[in-house]
Amino acid sequence: MTSTYTTNKSIEKPAYNDYASNPTGWSGPINTDWDIIDAAFGGVTVKNPTGVSGTVALTASEYQKLIIVFGTSITGQATLTANITYTIPAGVGGNWIVYNNTTGAFTITFAQASGGGTSINLTQGTRLLIFSDGTNVNYVAPNLGASSVTTTMLQDSSVTTAKINDGAVTYAKVDTGSIATVAQFRSAAASELLNANVPWDAAAFVSLTDGTSIAVDMATGFNFQVTIAGSRTLANPTNPKVGQSGVFIVTQNATGGYTLAFGSSYKFANGAAPSISTTANSVNMLFYYVYTSSFILVNVIRGVA
């Protein structure tokens, strides 16, 4: 009789009397089978894709192993020179940890040889746990051990919606470096999370330096204050953000009698710049809205008491 082999790992099943004439009997195939089983729990296949293109069928001894590395070694990167599809035979199922340790502007695809089911693209630099049901190849989990999860993997239809259990992520578990500071919120820094108290803290008044020309950097705040000790010009601001709004508080010193002129970026109703109260210690509120970087609408309330 002739031996048969299992579907997924091609483990030999000797038939009755198959090895009757062999002095060692079944010890040969049985030992080989145990080696295959052992490899399925921790064996490593390294496939070097350098200079390879098209479709490459993995052999039984290659897909029998749990870990498949596409590179020169687990630590050695290979350079892709073309797109490659690695396949396992139709009907073969199982789980694998695959590692795309390559560079180059090409892709590696893992698929069933039948071509009728789903396949996956292995993003460079990622380690993935995947499975096959004999027809389809899918992700079990995205990006095990890599520094980030790529958008492509998260959009894949095989990735379920609920990736993190409700309540699993709390504020205390968020990397503090990913939470915007007041300064980052004021300057509209990208890719930062927002704590609820930050907008309120960012609204605190920023003191401007009194001088003949009063400089304003709108990346440093939303609301500003200054006490003037002479007639001044509020200079065109730097770093204005469209949609930004706030207030300037301009206070006369104990002497008073000073005027305030405006840079060309400030615009007013009817095109006429208003005057401020010149009474000693009087407070003037200048509300502004940034329409464009050179069109900043201002409305003045004089002599607030």
Description:
This protein is mainly beta. It has 2 domains: 43-155, no CATH class; 203-304. The chain is 11% helix and 33% strand. It has 5 helices and 22 strands. The protein has helices at 27-42, 60-63, 151-155, 182-186, 198-202; strands at 4-5, 12-13, 44-47, 54-57, 67-70, 78-79, 84-88, 93-100, 102-103, 108-112, 120-122, 127-133, 137-141, 205-207, 213-214, 223-228, 232-234, 245-252, 260-262, 266-267, 283-292, 295-304. The strands form 6 sheets. A 6-stranded mixed beta sheet has the order 14-16-18-21-22-20, with no helix packed on it. It has a 5-stranded mixed beta sheet with strand order 3-5-8-12-13. The protein has a 4-stranded mixed beta sheet with strand order 4-7-10-11, with no helix packed on it. The longest helix is centred in the N-terminal third of the chain and has 16 residues, at 27-42. The relative contact order is 0.07. Mean pLDDT is 87; it is low at 145-162.
Secondary structure layout:
Layout: E1 4-5, E2 12-13, H1 27-42, E3 44-47, E4 54-57, H2 60-63, E5 67-70, E6 78-79, E7 84-88, E8 93-100, E9 102-103, E10 108-112, E11 120-122, E12 127-133, E13 137-141, H3 151-155, H4 182-186, H5 198-202, E14 205-207, E15 213-214, E16 223-228, E17 232-234, E18 245-252, E19 260-262, E20 266-267, E21 283-292, E22 295-304
Parallel strand pairs: 3-5, 4-7, 5-8, 6-9, 7-10, 14-16, 15-17, 16-18, 17-19, 20-22
Antiparallel strand pairs: 1-2, 8-12, 10-11, 12-13, 18-21, 21-22
